[in-house]
Amino acid sequence: MPMQSACTQTTPTSKSKSTQTTPVEQQKSAKSKRHPKRHRVERAPLVDKSIVTNPAPQSLERRKSNTAVVVSKVYIKPGETKPISLTGEHLQKEQILWSTCEMIPHAVCGVNQTTVTLPVTNSTKARKVFRVGETVGEWDQSLLVEKAPLACTTMLERISAPTADR
């Protein structure tokens, strides 16, 4: 009987008693059986839509006034802290800066300030460059309500009078 292995088949030759090895045809890979047949999906035809080239002036003005923009170029090395100046279009009253950059903290801008200077620390391992005109957040004109701070005590504080020695 001829001997068989996983990849080859051994058959005797007619002239000699030695055997010759020939490759066996491999079956189709199991990968093709795993994927189902793909069907073509028909799409709806595209509809022509008009493109607005000039947005409404009110929304454009509002967008400009709400953005916080870098005033001057600042290069910050890793681990370094530098001040950065930000401005907006209409900083007439007290506003809140909601930062979109991880390095710049949220802040409150006082009345009649045209620019705000904030300390920025680069805590990453890469350098960071803030360029002139770069948008780094939005100004919010929400009403600020200041509340009295909570009165807190520490466990080390004495509230009662000391007692006599025991």
TrEMBL record:
UniProt region (Disordered), positions on chain: 1-47
Biased composition (Basic residues): 30-41
Bias kind Low complexity: ranges: 8-23
Protein name: Uncharacterized protein
UniProt source species: Trichostrongylus colubriformis (Black scour worm)
